[in-house]
Structures are given as C-alpha cells and as structure tokens.
Amino acid sequence: MDRYLLCTGNPGKAKELREILPAQIQLLTLQEVDLPTDLPETGDTFAANALQKARFARDRTGLPCIADDSGLEVEALGGAPGVYSARYAGEAKEDAANMAKLLQEMNGVEDRRACFRTVLAFIDGSGEHLFEGEVRGTITTEPRGTNGFGYDPVFLPEMSDLTFAELDARMKNAISHRGQAVWKLARFLAEREVGDR
Ligand code: ITT
Prior knowledge:
binds inosine 5'-triphosphate
C-alpha cells in the first residue's frame, strides 16, 4: 500500500481528502510522524503556502507529502479573506468567529460573489506538483446548515439552492474546489502507476 503524509492540522480538510482519495492510499497524519499540526505558511499565494507546508514535512520525514492550502475570495472585499481565511478573525482560527466577521463585512453589500480555491502540493522523489480547484458562488446573509466545516454555512455554490453546509459530504466533494484538486491529484497518481507497469 502506498503511504503519503497528509500535511494538515485541519480535521475538516483531512476528512474530505480521505473521502476523495482512493482507499488503497494510506494517509498518515502529522501527529503520527511527530510533526506540529500548525505548519508554517507565510506566503502570499495558495500555491506558495501549499508548497511551504509540503516542503517542511518532506524535509523532515522524506515521505511523499500532500498539503492543501485553500480559502475564500470575496469579490466585494477585493479578494479577502483569501490566503488569510483561517485567521480572518484572529490567530485562534475559529470558524464561527471567521464567519461572523465575514457576514459583518458583507452587511448591506449587494455584490455577494465569491470563489473558493484550493491548491494541493504533492512532493515525492519525482519532484513538486501542484493541483488546483475552484468553485464560484455567493455569500449568504446568514449561516445555513451544519455539515462540513469552515465557511461552508455561508457559501452558496453556483447552480445550487443549498449551501456547502446543507449539502451532504458526497455532494460537496463532487463539486467543491477541494474535490476538483484532489481528483486531479488522484488521476496523476493513477496514470503514473499505469506508466510504471
Ligand atoms: P492547515 O494549514 O493545517 O492545512 P488551515 O485551517 O490553517 O489548516 P488554510 O491555511 O488553508 O488551512 O486555511 C483555509 C481556511 O479556509 C480555513 O479557515 C478553512 O476553514 C477555510 N476553508 C478551506 N476549505 C474550506 C471548505 O471546503 N469549506 C469551508 N471552509 C474552508
């Protein structure tokens, strides 16, 4: 079985990555290899941060590493919170506080367009690889639904009447930014395996 290190301390992300990646891939957690769960991410793009987290873990373990950097870009806020999505309302990285701040900033704003983005970085002996996904939608005026994590209750994906938090996990994964990026990674790994045969 192939073993990969999942370089995230966010349980919501980890759950989705596990759900989407093929079952024959064994995913190790940061705790299992004695690394901190809050890896350094000081870049100003999703790609830079995903690479920074994956490189940090790869340098220390030598394992094939997968890191996810993601966030919500809101048109009327000039792309904020963007790469600062996790710490939008402070260092504590609290979902409820982040959503409350976002709804406050968007109070009375008519243009509610937004985009969720994920960049996955995968590093192994073959080098560094990036996979991206994005989904467009709008910010609701109040939280709806209890599934998922993060900003899910306030994000209404395009062509859906339900927020990410009202969709079940399979539906969210089928259309989400993370779902798209992970499918690209899974296809890359599968095609490489076929090539190796
Ligand atoms: P790691 O760096 O350890 O992976 P993190 O939570 O710090 O965890 P990011 O820096 O990538 O991760 O921050 C992403 C932020 O965007 C965080 O607040 C998430 O809650 C939010 N987010 C990312 N994907 C999301 C999704 O699918 N649904 C809702 N919120 C999401």
